[in-house]
Amino acid sequence: MIALPVICLLTAILMIAGLRSQTANARTQEQKSQSILNAANALLLGLQGAESEVRGYSVTQNQTFLDNYEKAQTTINKNCDELQALAQESAIQKTEVAQIQELVKQQLNHLEATIQLSQNSTKITQQSSVLDRQLLKNEIQFQELENVIAQFIEQQKNAQAQREAKVETWKNLTTQVQWLALIVGLTATGGAIYLFINLDHQLSQYTDRIEESNAYLARTTQTLEKRNQELDQFAYIVSHDLKAPLRAIANLSSWIEEDLAGRLDPEMQHQMDLLRGRVHRMEAFINGILEYSRVGRMRSQVETVNVESLLKEIIDSLAPPPEFTIEFSTPMPTLVTDPLPLQQIFTNLISNAIKHHHRCDGKIFIASQELANAYQFSISDDGPGIDSKFHEKIFIMFQTLQARDTVENTGVGLAIIKKILDDKGGTIKVESEPEKGTTFYFTWLKR
Predict the structure, then answer these.
(1) What is the average per-residue pLDDT within 351-364?
(2) What is the CA radius of gyration of the chain?
(3) How far apart are CA 139 and CA 176, in angstroms?
């Protein structure tokens, strides 16, 4: 709708510019043609005058006629030069002017011959018949020249008429284009106004819908926040209510053991230790479930994290056996990120590698690789490895590869890591074979 009137306007402007150019060219050609016509008519009048003066002199022998002829001759030569200078439009025009000049030259020669015969006829009366024939020849020559000049003038008039007709055609065409541009422009403008009104109405409807959606989202967000608060409160109450009897059981077992000090047989002592182990495991379960439920809802402030410093703090807090070796490549990247979940991932992976290693002198190596929009970290150990059929199972809640009585483990750590990375837009995978160690790879967005 907007393009149509613009195109019509540009077309009209081009047509008007073309019309002005054609008109200006036609006016220039018209002035030039008029000058040529004036020069041709002046030449024709000059020749007629020269012819008359020569006839008068041949009859009366009056010197005045001869003087007038010489003046006419000068004018004729001047008109010929002017006509030649103006007639440069085409090769045909040049040829016609050259033909006229040649005939004028011949006519002047005949007139000169007539004057010569007239001067001689006063002495030799017998030459009067020759003079008459010369005058008749001059008249025939002049008629031929007059016809050529008249034909040339007529051609110039026809050419001028064609140019004027062309200008008139351009004028009519430009007028039609202007009217068409006006009609199309008005129609397109009306259509554009209608579309804009309709668009404004639709935009108003969409705005109302968006406002309704925003209000609904605000209510939903408020409800969600309330539910999260209730969930946190419920989790706290449940954990408190569950931990209280567990602590009571643990304390009770300790009191019984103190009361029966020295009277417990090895079997009974083993059962008491097993009881306290189950209590501690249940408490670890509860803590793991609470931690898992808080993933994605607990936010800390974004800050600049130097991964190398973070790893040193984690390794120091885990206090691995003295024989255990933990190394990492340098330099490690510096990230602008939420530090707590990243610390939680490294802590769980490194502690798992220490806990499940079958030797006290194991080795762990941590490396990083920069990707397009993230960093990929790897934690490798030379432990017992994991069979490929368990590679997916280990990321499921409460799944363990060894009996919990063998290695105290809740099976929640890797599930928490997986949930954190899903929330942060990262990924995790494992590469391992039995007796060949294990490598965990996870990605963390740069920002």
Answers:
(1) 89
(2) 58
(3) 55
Candidates 142, 122, 137, 135; CA nearest to 72 is 142
Q: Quick check: 385 and 353 in contact, CB under 8 A? A: no
Least Cα distance to 379 among 426, 438, 314, 330 occurs for: 438
- Predicted model pTM: 0.45
Residue from 253, 320, 242 nearest 284 by CA? 242
Q: How many helices (H) and strands (E) does the chain have?
A: 8, 7
CA end-to-end span of the chain: 46
131: tokens are: 């003079």
- In residues, how long is the chain? 447
Contact 326, 315 (CB under 8 A): yes
Nearest to 97 by CA among 241, 105, 168: 105
Reported as a single tens digit per residue, the pLDDT across 150-177 is 777 777 778 777 777 777 787 777 778 7
Using CA atoms, how far apart are residues 420 and 342, in angstroms rounded to an integer? 9
User: Which of 111-115, 349-353, 423-427 has the lowest average pLDDT?
Assistant: 111-115
What is the rounded CA–CA span in Å between residue 49 and residue 69? 8
Q: Which amino acid is at 377?
A: F
